[in-house]
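Q: How would the structure tokens look for this protein?
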Amino acid sequence: MFLLGIDIGTTATKGILLHPEQGVVAEAESPSTLRSPHVGWAEEEPAEWWDNVAVVTQACLQQVGANADAIAGVGVSGMVPTLILLDDEGRVLHPSIQQNDARAHREIQEFNDRVDGADVLARTGSAVTQQSIGPKFLWMQRVHPDVMARAAHLMGSYDYIVYRLTGCFSCERNWALESGLFDLHREEWDETLLDLSAIPRDWLGEVHWPSDVVGQVSEEAAVHTGLRAGTPVVAGSADHIASAFSAGLKAPGDLLVKLGGAGDILYSLDELVIDSSLFLDYHVIPGKYLLNGCMAASGSIIKWFRQGFAADADYALLDAEGGDTPPGSEGLILLPYFLGEKTPINDPLARGVLFGLTLTHTRGHVYRAILEGVAYGFRHHLTVLAERGLTASRGRVTNGGARSHLWKQVTADVLNIPLERIARHPGSSLGAAFIAGKGVGIFERWDDIERFIEISEVIEPDAGVSALYDERFAVYRELYERNRDLFPRVAGS
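A: Here is the predicted structure in token form.
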């Protein structure tokens, strides 16, 4: 008996099979294409995700030599809060507008001009930012009225896959919360904000907890994926929430740094804390919360750099060159705002900056500066937490970047905290599979996730290097402040 966990990620769709006793027994992934056809845009094709689901599901079953009858439940996680519009027959009308997309900057300003920002923050737990669904929906109305005339459903990435699997329209709680349209205290859609966004209430699916069984695999989906028709499917989870849960975050002060295509930093709480510089999420475990920092670009900058400027080098060579470069990159500092920035500055017009270049700098300097710039972005979030009296009691690191010793060490040094790396951690897909198991009754307690978590190493910060990074972080912060008023002058160029 297995549980299938699927994660709809920015760069790939990933799938695992989880055995309740043996752990993860199969893994597969299929690449996804992130497009940025205009400055600040980030789009993907939901049809590609759906095709990927079939690829990874069949690959996982083949690895264990099992048929679909062996799968007891399916859980899906994904990027949040993406915006997907369907017509009344369930057909996608437009590429997914990703959570880090910055095209609706004018609508964000208009939205903020029409609301009391403090009141919205108190009601929803989130400020109106680049991530908010309302401004993006307004942008779609203005630019694509033809699309909107045919639209009948609005949903996110993993809700879309759940729909394709089951034919049921559902909405997991964290898409609702991170949309900026959900009243945190009433636990219901905020009708005032829906009206301001011109979003019909009946376009949104019923809101569910992650482990709620919302439907079964349909006959049509069974043909496409190879799953058994009738297999239970749960509501699923936002990718960063599923990943944090499967990394063991549950005690107050637990911290997770995710070194992925976009950068996430999550902090576990037992009580509600709202901050305009951070996103707020429900924990997978009811009654707990997560403060969430999300950087629009991190690992995607590394991919951009390699494809455009280091095509002859693999990541191991770039790590070696960056490792040979002194900490601080000999005065080179990167602002990682290549897609604008979400938290903590909430500035969709911010842009990437490479500051301090000289003729002595090499490819290794630039590569290391990218790693350091992303780490400074994480450090900025710790500063926000510290201002609220919140400190990390334990730090962990996951995702693809955790395979890079240099990136892990740079992050630990910049943050000046030890980081525990989780061995063979498949990320959000493990959380999704476990949530499915909880939903179908295979796991009784949320604490059962601990049996699948193993710490492989602890990356200790170097005190001397951390002191240097303290100085460079101050320059990093000032660099943004001094250039903030210039970014709007080049926006759209």
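The domain at 2-238 is CATH 3.30.420.40 (Nucleotidyltransferase; domain 5).

Residues 363-387 form the longest helix (25 residues).

Upvote if useful.
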